[in-house]
Prior knowledge:
- By secondary structure, the protein is of the alpha+beta class.
- The protein has 13 helices and eleven strands.
- Helix content is 53%, strand content 17%.
- Strand 3 and strand 4 form a beta hairpin.
Amino acid sequence: MAVYEDREAFIPYRRSDLIELCVEDGKLAHAEVPKFREFCAILCAYYHFEFHASLETLKDNYAPFNPDADTDFRIEPSPPQLAAMESKVVRAFHRILERANYKPLSQANLERAFEEKSLIELKTHVDFDEFDQMVCYCRGDIYKIISVKKWFRNVQQTIDVFERMVLLLKFKNADYFKSKGAKLEKLNFTPGKMYAYYYKNIPKFDLEFLFPNVKTSMTWKDRLLFGIPAIGAAVPLLGRILPQLLLIVGAILVVLGGVSGLSELEVEEEQVRNVMPVLVAMLSLVITLGGFAFKQYTSYKNKEIKFQKNVTETLFFRNLASNANVFQALVDAAEEEECKEIILVYYHLLTSGETLTPSELDDRIETWMDETFEKKIDFDINGPVENLQAIRGKISADGEEVPLLSFDDRGACQVLSLDEAKSAIDYLWDNAFLYTK
């Protein structure tokens, strides 16, 4: 069984399309085709039922941490109960993402990505100490060519992109942020709540913009672009205000009794003793310097607003779901992936004509996907084999429960026939709810 570091386990076909691809492969007898479709239908229905139960449990435990909740609790959970519910959400979230064939991103990987130059030139900082929990997963690490405007012209640039990004953040409680002197009403999040985000096509070096607590500031390049024009404008401005500045200094010397120093400033005593010219000079100085400072501050704020607009537009058009809706989307994705894997394993064992070990079956499926559809994947054989083993049902009225997949003496896989497999799953459906004896 080969291991490929440059491939993913994600199967790039919809479940319904994959069933048709198996049928079009031509290895099923004509009479088996409708039976195979029926097997796939009842299998997917059974797994939909199973995943729905997992989703309801996840939603119940997420409820007290949902920042978008519009319902009240009959009885507020106690602190120990909240801690237990938080752990259940995080464990279930990890499990769902793994079943949906996502890969984890550690904090170290995120910090390395933050150090790289971003497409949006901003100096950024994310304080990971503000989180009680952080879960980050990705899928589809690819390269894309985009058009970037540089020096008044568009240039083609290749960037590393995650086709899907999932982020779960649990912020620390309000006391932590109060201890840091933060004003709670000005935070972009609610302390103590858990935020979930689901994005598409996120450049790897823009990951920091997904965090609601990201702090931005100007880069040194932008500071220089502001500072150099400011110095250039200040030089002629200083020349214009120098006479008024000398009058003000002279007035201060007169008040302090230093009239002898006026000759060094080349300022006449009558000019200084006349209050109105001094007041006018001071007012002119304040207005001139104030106007210059306001102009520079306004330019900086406009630049900052433009940056925030770019970030907002980037996240808005790439957002797939937020908070509770993320769980629904990921459970659906996990259900889809798990069913596709089981269908592929069952189909290839059913049509192989020879017994196959799990390792041989793994290679067979990867080769089939590559040669038939030119799709290179790193198939995860362990999950679907375990799932098929776990599905046990009766194939006759007086028989024992048997698994859909079992192993022979040499460790090769063998599966029930289509009729037997349908009967086994039908037995599970009949016994899903046993409210009476």
